[in-house]
Design goal:
Blueprint: H1 2-12, E1 21-25, H2 32-36, E2 39-44, E3 47-49, E4 55-57, H3 62-72, E5 76-77, H4 88-97, E6 100-101, H5 106-113, H6 115-124, H7 140-150, E7 154-157, E8 167-170, H8 173-186
Parallel strand pairs: 1-2, 5-6
Antiparallel strand pairs: 3-4, 7-8
Length: 187
């Protein structure tokens, strides 16, 4: 709704208005964003089964999303938060299709999705970061060693975990091994 409201505000003073298009799943058919958009394209049911047999949100089905964008004749896509907002693969598909991805380029999403590379980039450009291991910690023994140098409490964070996944607070060396294994398994 924030995006739709912003576009409506832009359109008030424009002779070349922007059309908003909601892409939605069946359970969202009566949602506010679908009703308020200039057009709407149905993705289908709320979930699908991926090639590994796992049920996932249809909003994560990149092929379906790209088909819907093509059907909608979309020039740009704003994905909001969650789902594919942090998907470098989706941003890359949009770039290849000539659809403006409203957000960072795929290369930036890729770097920021890797928490180790993101911290290294921040340090390289002079952005202050909290003390950390300085690089990837590949096993629980290395994590115990790094945390011992940093001092407890520490956070264990998976390099690939997003949305708060793969992160654990660790108060002592005794907690490190199970916390490391848990964060790794979750990510």
């Amino acid at each position: 709704m924030r995006c739709i409201s912003a576009v409506l505000e832009l359109n008030r003073g424009s002779s070349d208005p922007i059309t908003t298009i909601a892409i939605y799943t069946q359970p969202d058919a009566a949602s506010w964003f679908v009703r308020e958009a200039g057009e709407a394209v149905l993705l289908g049911p709320a979930t699908f089964t991926d090639t590994d047999g796992q049920r996932k949100s249809t909003y994560l089905d990149l092929d379906r999303l790209m088909q819907a964008l093509a059907e909608a004749r979309a020039d740009a896509v704003w994905v909001g938060w969650g789902f594919v907002a942090e998907s470098a693969a989706f941003a890359r598909l949009c770039e290849r299709a000539g659809i403006t991805f409203v957000g960072p380029p795929s290369a930036v999403i890729e770097v920021l999705g890797d928490k180790v590379r993101a911290k290294q980039l921040a340090e390289a450009v002079g952005i202050p970061v909290l003390p950390w291991s300085g690089g990837a910690v590949h096993n629980a023994d290395s994590a115990v060693l790094a945390a011992g140098l940093l001092g407890y409490p520490v956070l264990v964070k998976s390099a690939a975990g997003g949305g708060g996944r793969g992160i654990r607070a660790v108060a002592s060396a005794d907690e490190m091994r199970p916390a490391f294994a848990s964060a790794q398994a979750e990510a």
